[in-house]
């Protein structure tokens, strides 16, 4: 995305003028399986949802654009909470339509080397999860999913504000852990 388009997108997102899609996937729905190029602490690897779910639940959070103000705030919030998620056996991964070179830097700077971020080339994953902005189909909405093994949506939080996503996913993780 060119700088003027990125500035316009950031302005529209922060002003609330860009429509949010609201998640179509609901608790109880099957979570579409996917794999994607990802980065953790600047190191690239291939993330596979099915493999991650073998270890426990996954917080999959979609965000519009790396290094924009709201997305950076949300990444910082997830970074601070990641040790707690890990203690509950939960993997955290963010996903956007940014390229992997951008995400390698974002995983270090904004994610503070705490959790991985994945590149959704062609916006295929966001389409499968109905996590795209209505006005910009190649840009992710801000939606968080709590996915439990073997691959079911257990909780959803869909709000354009970065605030509330970590708390909603933490409540879902704690409820899952308590119910095991």
The average pLDDT is 89
Q: DSSP strand (E) fraction? A: 15-25%
Helix content: 25-40%
Please identify the oligomeric state: single chain
Placed side by side, the strands forming the largest sheet appear as 2-1-5-4-3-6-7
Gyration radius (Cα, Å) is 15 Å
Biggest β-sheet strands, sense, barrel: 7 strands, mixed
Structural category:
alpha/beta
Structure summary, number of beta strands:
7
Organism: Roseateles flavus
GO molecular function: thioredoxin-dependent peroxiredoxin activity
Keywords: Antioxidant, Disulfide bond, Oxidoreductase, Peroxidase, Redox-active center, Signal
Family: Belongs to the peroxiredoxin family. BCP/PrxQ subfamily.
Please give a structural write-up.
Strand 4, helix 4 (100-109) and strand 5 form a beta-alpha-beta unit. The chain has 180 residues and is of the alpha/beta class. The protein is globular and about 40 Å long. 37% of the residues lie in helices and 22% in strands. The longest helix has 19 residues, at 69-87. The protein contains six helices and seven strands. The N and C termini lie far apart (44 Å). The protein has helices at residues 3-15, 49-53, 69-87, 100-109, 124-128, 165-179; strands at residues 35-40, 43-48, 58-62, 91-96, 116-119, 143-148, 152-158. The protein has a seven-stranded mixed beta sheet with strand order 2-1-5-4-3-6-7. Helix 3 runs parallel beside helix 6.
């Amino acid at each position: 995305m060119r700088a003027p388009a990125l500035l316009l997108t950031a302005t529209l997102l922060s002003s609330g003028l860009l429509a949010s899609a609201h998640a179509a996937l609901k608790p109880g729905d099957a979570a579409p399986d996917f794999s994607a190029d990802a980065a953790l602490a600047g190191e690239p690897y291939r993330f596979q949802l099915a493999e991650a779910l073998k270890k426990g639940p996954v917080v999959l959070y979609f965000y519009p654009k790396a290094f924009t103000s709201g997305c950076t705030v949300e990444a910082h919030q997830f970074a601070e909470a990641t040790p707690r998620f890990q203690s509950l056996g939960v993997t955290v991964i963010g996903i956007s339509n940014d390229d992997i070179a951008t995400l390698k830097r974002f995983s270090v700077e904004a994610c503070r080397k705490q959790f991985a971020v994945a590149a959704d080339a062609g916006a295929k994953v966001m389409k499968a999860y109905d996590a795209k902005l209505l006005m910009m189909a190649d840009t992710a909405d801000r939606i968080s999913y709590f996915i439990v093994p073997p691959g079911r949506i257990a909780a959803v939080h869909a709000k354009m504000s970065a605030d509330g996503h970590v708390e909603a996913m933490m409540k879902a993780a704690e409820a899952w852990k308590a119910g095991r």
